[in-house]
Amino acid sequence: MTDVPAPVLEVEGIRAGYGQGDVLHGVDLAVDAGRVVAVLGPNGAGKSTLLKVIAGFVRPDSGHVRLDGADVVGAPPSELARCGLYWLPEGRAVFPSLTVVENLRLATARPESGRFDAAFAAFPRLDERRGQLARTLSGGEQRMLALARAFLAEPLVLLLDEPSLGLAPKVVDEVFAGIARFRDGGTAVVLVEQYVHRSLALADSAVVLDRGTVAFAGSADELDADEVGARYLGSAVSTRSRARSGRARRR
After folding, report:
1. CATH of domain 9-93+156-245
2. What is the rounded average pLDDT of the residues 189-207?
3. CA-to-CA distance for 51 and 11, rounded, in angstroms?
């Protein structure tokens, strides 16, 4: 019998909060290398708290977080980053006073080589703006720069919190194409995102959180995006997601 490799990231029985009661109530999640898990749910469901627990910024009251088989609960964020976990929070997450190339240099100790070329190939807009200060980039370009920095870091696990927030539909397309590059390169991706259709089209599996508990966990193909949007996010979000992304699935 062939041994099945353990998921590169496992979250088991996580209970966590901020001092006035738990936000997460026994949450489980697992993602393999080269796979994407979409974490969906309404505002306040605990999605961002879950990412902060995994990244080491919030210590859980109970439960386990295993990175590449090792329990890392209690490890500081800096140590988790060195072990291959990369958290990209909501917002721009770049150094505004540095150029595009300077931002990228901070993400890797390697000299500019083929990896830089690959980053610019993944985000072509940045190639045209190598010497431009990050603060002069558009919001979408800054988000791409943040993703390009993560790309250079070659993480085992990438945590993304609302990467499409506030972006125009065309830019969202480019951001999601960039996320697919991480998956195709073998990175395990945990994607917190409001666009249900886009998320499920990209993801291999999905977890739906509702008031800090897991309402669904399984294959993304098992979920109806319209039903998820209407039940947990509101029909307006579901309709907007469908209009921007269509119903195509990655095969």
Report:
1. 3.40.50.300
2. 93
3. 10
